[in-house]
Amino acid sequence: MLPFVVFLTAVAALYQPSTFTWVSKESYPPALGGIMLSIGIRLSIDDIALAFKRPALLSVGFAAQYVLKLALGVLVAQGFGMSPMFFSCLMLPGHNYQATPAS
């Protein structure tokens, strides 16, 4: 159900962007936390036990998240000719980047 809701939201945002002007940067972390909570609630003890029975698959997922994702971020940024300053925005999503005034 969640992928369907995400897809419909993305389509609505593309066709009618003004619908989502009320969404601010401050609402991203709680929204992401809610999504992660809704996914985590659906996990059962059997799901967690199955994950520990397959440590090789866990290692592949770990490597994909912390190595492959970073490498793809660099490749995409270089492919679009972005400044290295913007690489971190592709490689470390979810961190709270806020501009601070110069002293």
Short description:
With 103 residues, the chain is mostly helical. Helix content is 65%, strand content 0%. The chain has 5 helices and no strands.
Q: If you had to describe this structure to a student in words, what would you say it looks like?
A:
The protein is mainly alpha-helical and 103 residues long. The protein has a domain at 22-91. The chain is 65% helix and 0% strand. It contains 5 helices and no strands. The chain has helices at residues 2-15, 28-41, 45-53, 55-79, 87-91. Residues 94-103 have low confidence and may be disordered.
Largest sheet: none
- Estimate the strand proportion: under 5%
Mean pLDDT: 79
Topology order in helix (H) and strand (E) letters: HHHHH
Q: Residue share in helices?
A: 55-70%
Structural class: mainly alpha
Radius of gyration: 18 Å
What is the approximate shape? Answer: flat
How far the N terminus sits from the C terminus, by CA atoms, comes to 48 Å
The tally of helices reads 5
Tally of DSSP β-strands = 0
Question: What's the assembly state of these chains?
Answer: single chain
Low-confidence stretches: 94-103
Organism: Fraxinus pennsylvanica
Membrane topology: Multi-pass membrane protein
Main location: membrane
Keywords: Membrane, Signal, Transmembrane, Transmembrane helix
